Amino acid sequence: MVSAIIVAAGKGRRFGFKVSKAVLKLNSRPVIAYSLAVFNAHPQVKEIIVVGNSGNIPALRNIIKREKIAKHIKIVPGGKERRDSVAKGLQAVNPKADLILIHDAARPFITKSLVSSVIKGTQKMGAAIAAVPVKATIKKVQSGLVVEKTLDRKSLWEIQTPQVFKKGLILKAYKKFKRLPATDDAMLVERLGAKVNVVLGSYSNIKITTPEDFIIAKGIAGLWKTA
């Protein structure tokens, strides 16, 4: 059984809007509605847990009602930081779940095939993440804005969500590293010494972080398909 956690607790301060990104309309649909539709239609996902915040939970309830989600779904309040919100979601997971999928609501353009690939990827190592090869030249820069060196982009990948883990593995990682800063969940699993499988994601699977990202997202939304 796969339980999907959608992290939608961000307040969008960097984004510059008064409402959180998850409930913001993107071509007539709320941002979170895109990923909700994919998880609702995916046969391996049996449960959806949406982690919101005090400001957007009423809107999330309305969105879920309008989207007519057929899967078992819960809304739980998140925490101060992303990792705190994920921890809240983990606490709400069905005890019968074997795998836990974690996804950022700010990445609306996932597909059923990508979700299937990442779920399948956990069979190798117990953890799998979506990612794409870096296309740009990346330089490591010292303080003072001086280039230290140019990194070999052949070994550099941009990490995305969804990320899928065996339940025991991700619960162990969150329990052991309660105070460790982490920009994604796989970082904590890596600290356990576990290997993480990389599954090819999509360059369309962007994360909406800035107003410029939102402009790009409007273009992708017109072409996006859930398959």
The major pleated sheet works out as: 7 strands, mixed
Approximate shape: globular
CATH topology: Spore Coat Polysaccharide Biosynthesis Protein SpsA, Chain A
Provide the domain count. Answer: 1
Q: Structural class, from secondary structure content?
A: alpha/beta
Number of strands: 11
Report how far the terminal alpha carbons are from each other: 21 Å
What's the CATH class label?
Answer: Alpha Beta
Q: Which CATH architecture?
A: Alpha-Beta Complex
Global mean pLDDT: 94
Provide the β-strand percentage band. Answer: 25-35%
Record the strand order, biggest sheet: 5-4-1-6-10-7-11
Q: Can you offer a commentary on this structure?
A:
This protein is of the alpha/beta class and 227 residues long. The chain has one domain: Spore Coat Polysaccharide Biosynthesis Protein SpsA, Chain A (Alpha-Beta Complex), CATH 3.90.550.10. Helix content is 32%, strand content 26%. The chain contains seven helices and eleven strands. A seven-stranded mixed sheet has the order 5-4-1-6-10-7-11, with helices on both faces. It has a two-stranded antiparallel ribbon with strand order 2-3. The protein has a two-stranded antiparallel ribbon with strand order 8-9. A hairpin with a 3-residue loop joins strand 8 and strand 9. Helix 1 packs across helix 2. The longest helix is centred in the middle third of the chain and has 14 residues. The model has no long low-confidence stretch (mean pLDDT 94).
